[in-house]
Amino acid sequence: MAAAGGGLGALGAGEAMAAAHALSLPAEAYGNDPNIEMIWAMKAYQHAEVYFNLISSVDPKFLKLTKVDDQIYAEFRKSFGDLRIDVLDPEELKSEPAKAKWRPFCMQFDGVVEDFNYGTLLRLDCTKDYTEENTIFVTRIQFFAIETARNREGYNNAVYSHAMETKSVAPERGISA
C-alpha cells in the first residue's frame, strides 16, 4: 500500500499532537465533525497499512495481534464456526441478522481488548491488498477475530508468500547477462 497523499504522514509534529489529543476526547464533544471523521479515517488507513506490511514481512502464523488472541480465536470459532473468512461476504458482517449475531460476540471483549469497538478497515479477500473494492469498515474486535483466524488457519500465507517471491525475484531482474 502506498501512503495516501496528505495522510497522517503529512502532518507536522504539532498537528499530529493536536490530532492525537482530539482523538482522546469523548465523541459527544464533536457530534458529526467532518474533520474528526477524516482523522479517524486516516488512523484506520494507517492501521491497515501497518498491518498489511506486517503480514507481508513476517510469516502470519507467528503473529500475535493481542494479549488475548487465544480467547478471541476460540470465541470467534465458537460463535462463527461456519463463517468463510478467506473471502468475506459483507452481508455476513453488516446485515441486521449479522449485526445481531456479532453484537454479543463483540461486547464480551469490552474491557478485555482496548478500543474493541473502534472502527478498523478489513480486507474482504485476504489474498489481496486494501483497495476501495476490497475493504470494509468493521470494529476492531471483528478485525482481530477474523485476522487472527486467517493467520492461524493459513489464509494470510498468500500475502506473505507473494511478498517473499517478489523480494527474491526483484534482485534477479537487475542482473544482466
Automatic annotation (TrEMBL):
Taxonomic superkingdom: Eukaryota
The Polysaccharide biosynthesis domain, residue ranges: 36-160
Gene Ontology CC, one term: cytoplasm
One Pfam family per UniProt: PBDC1
InterPro entries reported in the protein's UniProt record: PBDC1-like_dom_sf, PBDC1_metazoa/fungi, Polysacc_synth_dom
Protein name, per record: Polysaccharide biosynthesis domain-containing protein
